[in-house]
Amino acid sequence: MKRWQCINCGYVHKGPAPPKVCPSCGAPFTAFVELDQNPKARFRRIQVVSPRPPGFRYVIVGNSSAGRSAARAIQALDPKGHVTVISEEPTPLYYRPLLPDYIGGLDRKSFFEMGKVTFDDSGLELVLGEKAERLDLEGKQVVCAGGRTFAYDALLLATGSNPLQVPWPGSEADGIAYFRTFADAERIAGMMAKATRAVVVGGGLLGLEFVRAFLARGLKITLLVRENRVGFPALDEQGGPIVQQALQDLGVDLALEEEVDSFESAQGRVTGVKTSRGRTIPCDLVGVAIGVRPRIELAREAGISTDRGILVDAHMQTSAPGVYAAGDAAQAWDRVWGQQRVNTSWHNSQEQGEAAGIAMAGGEGAYPGAVSANYQLAAGLPFCALGIASPPDLTGFEFERDAALDKRTYRKVVRRSGQIVGAALIGDLSTAGEIEEQIKAAATAPPEGPVPEPPASAVSAPAPTSIPRDSGPEAPSERGTDMKKMTEQFMKDAFAGESQAHMKYLNFAKKAEEEGKANVARLFKAASYSEQVHASRHLSVMEGIEGTAENLAAAAGGEGFEIDEMYPAYIAVAIEQDEPEAQESLNHAMQTEKVHRELYTRAKKAVDAGGDANLAELWVCDFCGFTMEGEPPDKCPLCGNLKRNFVKF
Question: What is the pLDDT of residues 274-294, one digit of tens each?
């Protein structure tokens, strides 16, 4: 008997064909994929062109779709190899698309049973609850946070992604939730026990998942959407309102073109969301879903080539020999867009993981490239976005639309040079499978050769974070020269922060002078000037004073927050909204803050020892604010500003 699994909710159906409609989530038969009766049997047709020696050591970082698909392929092609799977989560494998259902009330046993349907643990060394902290490429080892090391002959990075978090004022309050893991889902389910009213921030696919979970638990919901429609960018201005009406019929309060300004709380618990329109929405639970960020830190810190994701070639190998990447963290060939892209879906992760596992075990063949296929269920209404559902530029594309608002159905087909390259379907998805096959037929094969170099814009980018997207806005009017609201607000926030830091650092400098710490005073004066430069640049594109040691610690801590949290989030939004000038301005500031933090830390060590800081001449670029010791180079390493335009301190 054949088995079919719904890629929307994970439900498994037994029969000669998939059901017309998923009895669990309502998705149509096109959302089902056939499960292999004997998953390893189909690998017999793959030729092993580079056999591995007995005991070959395969290490996989990540115990989800990509990692386990790779493990299954390796076990089939190299049964004498040793496969280790490292996961920082202490739980067994689970089907990640079911997380909203678990939050909504699915019992724990059923949740984990679903993961066992697809993958088998036998023959694997599973290392759970252990975080991979560092890669030793020369020694070919994975170093974990707990001190354990794992030697490898072939390594797969299937590290997934994390929710994008924006440091809005009040974000530290309890009751503000992000979800990507089972632990997240458990925590949110616990919060819901005392919740009656929730706000969901983000009207994209992730936000709609939060809404689905909260509706299942009977919460009163306000959906806060910064765009003019839900489902952006997958759904256009004709498709979005159909889903919106279905949500409103279930009692969801829609707040379009409205954004978070801050969170309000009482006794450490969130009580409301203050919005860009000046109102406060009362709530006792907030679900934030504004995108995800590929987890590329392990690769980037090891010197592996990265952009928005970990760059891979046609065999899923990175720029480091013997090291591969797959899933949400990988930036692989997209055969519809004809370029390297991050594609975040369970199905794509499975395909990429399998391709990586075949290559790791010496199998023949190359990854043909991803075809984006996102199936979703909102308010009981199924919809999907396939391929280039919403081209960022209308030039060269033709559109075929058919809407029946009374039946809540919508069909949009996107063609390029007469060939179907994308589609968006709502309500009736019966033609989705056929369309997806036509999209694949028009796809571009991946280029052979080494891992591509990251774009020039990524070379100086500190941590290529982004909100992965399947498409950009459809209408040219949505890509005008004016900065979009979210980026504009962040630029204003950054300007205000830099302006305050400028005055604060002058006061810190005065205190250092009073204590006879002339070099520390000079450092703060240079930083103050640099903050002025940042504030001026940001504007053109769009707290207490203690002892010197305490001030240095406060300054280093403040820069740390900006480097690790604030600027990465702001840069991610600028990338998502295609604002290169804002991205460059924010990136320049972030790079400079890294230098400041290092100098503050050095200076504090000297002050704590009872002396003054040991600093050479300090120079600040008057264009980007980059700060450096010693003699400045002929050109600023960040912006290329000439040496004569550096200011000395």
Answer: 999 999 999 999 999 988 889
Say how many residues make up the chain: 649
**Tokens matching residue 336:** 């519809």
Q: Are 599 and 627 in contact (CB under 8 A)?
A: yes
- pLDDT of 480: 35
Of 231, 236, 234, 237, nearest to 387 by C-alpha is 234
Phi-psi map region of 227: left, alpha, beta (phi>0 left; psi -120 to 50 alpha): beta
Determine the pLDDT at residue 456. Answer: 45
- Report the phi/psi class of residue 583: left, alpha or beta, with left for phi > 0 and alpha for psi in -120 to 50: alpha
Rounded-to-integer distance, Cα 227 and Cα 242, Å? 15
Among the listed residues 632, 604, 646, the one whose alpha carbon sits nearest the alpha carbon of residue 520: 604
- Could you tell me where the DSSP H helices lie in 418-473? 432-441, 456-459
Structure tokens at 424: 């968006």
Give the containing element (helix H, strand E) for 487: helix 485-514
- CA 642, distance to chain mean position in Å, is 36
Q: What is the mean pLDDT of residues 383-407?
A: 87
The helix/strand/coil state of 411 is strand
Sheet containing strand 409-416, strands side by side: 373-378, 381-387, 419-426, 409-416, 397-404
Tokens of 557: 């801590």
Tokens of 206: 């992730």
Rounded mean pLDDT of 204-224?
93
Name residues whose C-beta falls within 8 Å of residue 468's C-beta, 6 or more positions apart in sequence. 161, 291, 292, 294, 308, 328, 342, 343, 344
Q: What's the pLDDT at 39?
A: 66
563-590 average pLDDT score: 77
DSSP character string of 325-375 = E-GGGEEEEETTTTEEE----HHHHHHHHHHHHHHHTTBS-----B--EEE
CA dihedral angle for residue 383, residue 477, residue 294, residue 270, rounded to 10 degrees: -80
Range 604-624 burial, b when 16+ CB lie within 10 A, else e: bebbeeeebbebeebbbbbbb
Helix H segments across 92-250? 99-103, 108-118, 182-192, 205-216, 240-249
pTM of the entire structure?
0.71
pLDDT band at 16 (very low <50, low <70, confident <90, very high): confident
Give the angle subtended at the CA of 98 by the CAs of 97 and 100, to the nearest 5°: 100
Average pLDDT over every residue of 109-131:
86
Contact assessment for residue 56 and residue 40, using Cβ atoms and an 8 Å cutoff: no
Alpha carbon separation from 38 to 11, 112, 119, 120, 156 (Å, rounded): 19, 21, 11, 11, 24
Look up residue 65 and give its two tokens: 């779709």
**Number of other residues whose CB lies within 10 A of the CB of residue 580:** 10
Range 98-127 average pLDDT:
85
Residue with tokens 């927050």: 561
In sign, the C-alpha dihedral spanning 575, 490, 235, 343 is positive
Classify the C-alpha dihedral 118-122-125-131 as positive or negative.
Answer: positive
570's torsion region: left (phi>0), alpha (psi -120 to 50) or beta? alpha
